[in-house]
Amino acid sequence: MERKPEVILNRKNVIGEGILWHADKQCFFWTDIPKAKLFKYKPSTGKAEQWETGTPVGGFTIHQDGRLLLFMAEGAVKLWTDGKFETVIESIPEMKGNRFNDVVADPLGRVFCGVMSTEKSAGWVYRLDPDKSVTKVIQNTGTANGMGFSKDAKRLFFSDSKKSNITIFDYDKASGSLSNSRIILQTSRSEGGSPDGLCMDSDDNIWVGLWEGSAILQMDQNGKEMQRIQFPTSKITTLCFGGEDLRDIFITSAGADDLEQNGQLAGALFHLNLGIKGKTEYRSRFDN
Fold this sequence. Notes:
- It is a single chain.
- With about 290 residues, the protein is mainly β.
- It has a single domain (about 1-275), classed as Neuraminidase.
- Helix content is about 0%, strand content about 55%.
- The chain has one helix and 24 strands.
- The protein has one helix spanning about 260, and strands at about 1-10, 15-20, 25-30, 35-40, 45-50, 55-60, 70, 75-80, 85-90, 100-105, 110-115, 125-130, 135-140, 145-150, 155-160, 165-170, 175-185, 195-200, 205-210, 215-220, 225-230, 235-240, 250-255, 270-275.
- Strands 1-24-23-22 form a four-stranded antiparallel beta sheet, with no helix packed on it. It has a four-stranded antiparallel beta sheet with strand order 2-3-4-5, with no helix packed on it.
- A hairpin with a 5-residue loop joins β20 and β21 (about 225-230).
- The longest helix is centred in the C-terminal third of the chain and has 4 residues, at about 260.
- It is globular.
- The chain starts with a strand and ends in a 15-residue tail after the last strand.
């Protein structure tokens, strides 16, 4: 199987992030956070599109109706399709001057959404419920990043790039509560990079991009490394499984604002096929 990543598109992202496969449209979407851009790419045609979002999109989910649910600056949450927005939450006072980062939906349509840390405070993670209420569920994060659920939805995996670790939580799907946190991976940015975005495969293994680590890592749920794929650029941000059979891996990167430091392919979009099948991401939903 192909173990060398290939570049399929290079839009020179400063921070390419949040990539998700949209099965209905057979394409994937991702963002360039500081540039406030949203991208779409359809592998079957090679067609790429982009839109200006006005303010940065830290993360998004595929919504129950097929639109994207964008998590933005100041706590804004908006439904989006083809450049058209519908506001769900205008802003969250506690997030003034801040923004969302990575997000993930659970089987019941709740969304866990990370909030960046600032010079004045640590970050945190909200849970957005289908009734559109938000509840703080993880406190004192550094850089709240990738999240993913096990197949039985009894465990949530959470990466914190600033703390350079991945934590596992027990998850109660009925109540949406997290408990019994424990660190399963601790890395060093100076010696292999920090965990960034993550996703799960169909065998319940974890895949994570390594910021300043020039690699993606596959590991089991105990944090044991299974394989590592090297990339020709240092800041690998996140990845997703997609394609008709969910065996294609699409990977985003960052650093196009300093190609000399990060490599000439910094900010490019990469592709791999290792013959490993991914897991379909859950969709967000609202009661009305």
